Amino acid sequence: MRRTLRQALQALLAVTLVGAAAAGHAEDKKIVLGFAQVGAESAWRTANTVSVKSAAKDAGITLKFSDAQQKQENQIKAIRSYIAQKVDVIAFSPVVESGWEPVLEEAKRAHIPVVLTDRMIDAKDPSLYVTMIGSDFLEEGRRGGRWLEEHYKDDKGPINIVELQGTVGSAPANDRHAGLMEIIKNDPKFKVIASQSGDFTLAGGKQVMEAFAKTYGKQINVVYAHNDDMALGAIQAMEEAGMKPGKDVTVVSFDATKGGLQAAAAGKINVDVECSPLLGPQLMDTVKKIVAGEQVPHRIVTNETVFPMNVAAQVLPTRKY
Ligand code: GZL
């Protein structure tokens, strides 16, 4: 009896020591995060990449990073490679809303949690991702629409709007359009006379605005650009066409990057709706919570505001991107 008890105690002690060692090792093992970025299409995206990389370093998380050059197939390839490497967590900013189920099913089967950052996906199964950290683009569009309503409240119209859309099929493009339309649909003086994608790039915005200026000229009252890069391109095109952006043409833009706010301070953008790219710290906190087995909300919305032209100059010195 005594021998058996001693053997049992020895076995219990051994199990406890192994468990503690494993736990200790688990605590020491660095978290590996695979991040599939959209690309480097805009100042916003560059700032977002800097935020993710610096936050991973500060958090002691090993970051595997890929740039998809705005191509969905490249993002899918990157996610597959992270699955093959058995990373602890996968995070990505989906370049477009649709077409993600197959690869996210593979991540789920591999028991690798997925975090969406910045942009949303169109998926029936909400369990394909743990959480989405990013802006409410629909509300951003509503903010742009409400600003236009206030700006033109004493004007009987017509107010003709040309729209520079972001990447076709992307959540920010879909929702910044939908948010605007939600606000102006009941006010017949507002009319979107043309809408075309500039793919969130400066060159794209300039090219589309050159065509709009040629076709519509002085009929244009408002340029509604889905991001600052396209707005800055459009400003170049308008000035080359002899138009005065911010004066005879009202310019509404999104992101509130330094470039956009500098243009606003120079009187060329009338309002810049903030969309923060500084998602890195929130992402790393969330990754640590997921690895530790803690619950996280299915949606984490970033807090944002609106910068009319008259405040741009005073906020510029404090802007981080
Ligand atoms: C918005 C982000 C958009 C920015 C653009 O969260 O996805 O993509 O508005 C960027 O500047 O290219």
TrEMBL record:
One of its GO terms (cellular component) is cell envelope. Residues 1-26 form the signal peptide. Pfam families: Peripla_BP_4. Keywords: Signal. It is found in: Cell envelope. Residues 39-294 form the Periplasmic binding protein domain. One of its GO terms (molecular function) is carbohydrate binding. InterPro entries: Peripla_BP_I, SBP_2_dom. Its main location: other. CDD domains: PBP1_galactofuranose_YtfQ-like (cd06309). SUPFAM superfamilies: Periplasmic binding protein-like I. Belongs to the bacterial solute-binding protein 2 family. This is LacI family transcriptional regulator. It comes from Trinickia symbiotica.
